[in-house]
Amino acid sequence: MDLGLRGKRVLITGASQGIGEGLAEVFAEEGCDLHLTARQADKLQLLADRLSGEHRVTVTVQSADLSLPETAQAIVEAAGDIDVLVNNAGAIPGGDLWQVDAETWRRGWDVKVFGYIDMTRLVYARMKARGGGVILNNIGNGGENPDFRYVAGSTGNAGLMAFTRAIGGASLDDNIRVVGVNPGPVATNRIMKIMMSRAKEKWGDEGRYTELMADYPLGRAASVREVADLFAFLASSRSGYTSGAIFTVDGGITSRRSI
Description:
The chain is of the alpha/beta class. 47% of the residues lie in helices and 14% in strands. It has helices spanning 18-29, 41-55, 71-79, 102-130, 151-168, 189-203, 209-213, 224-235, 253-258; strands at residues 9-12, 33-38, 59-63, 84-87, 133-138, 176-183, 246-249. Strand 1 (9-12), helix 1 and strand 2 (33-38) form a beta-alpha-beta unit.
């Protein structure tokens, strides 16, 4: 399916690995020019070299840490005029209220919660001046499934869901669409480490993580591609009447818990 994205310029934060890398791959396949940011400059450059060579698109990279003041402004200025922003950077640490101290909690939110908000504030203004655009927030289904063991993440993701709906509810007035995606478990190195940690906590053997995976729908986590393809569709004009909405990609986990 040709999504009509060829020639669009896409800014993706947290693009060096995991879902971010998958997002870069999908948008490059669609013919988009990319501006990729993350803290790991070496991984970004390797990815950029591969994508530009394979798909004949322009890929620029920028090493950036959204936990630092003024980083969002620096990213937006370096990216220039963009058609699509994908907020993807950051991973809020797991743990309960006492395991996640105040400093750790704030540091996690500086990137994923306030980073998304700061990037949206800056990019929205530029998109409005240019006549429109799309802002996509990679959030996570923890916001729909409050978890004692993931209190900072559950709370932060719920906040980003509300933020996405609040901004996206009125943004079409400015020809801007703001949409959120809530992936559940996705087959990345991060989820692998989490599952191994839980297996070690439960059985004292991190190698038994596959037994935990068996409880997921279809006995597996989602592939990166299953998540990234949705972002590309939501960025396209084929999804032109979609704004202020959250799409959950977790194999029905959230719906099962609501029964």
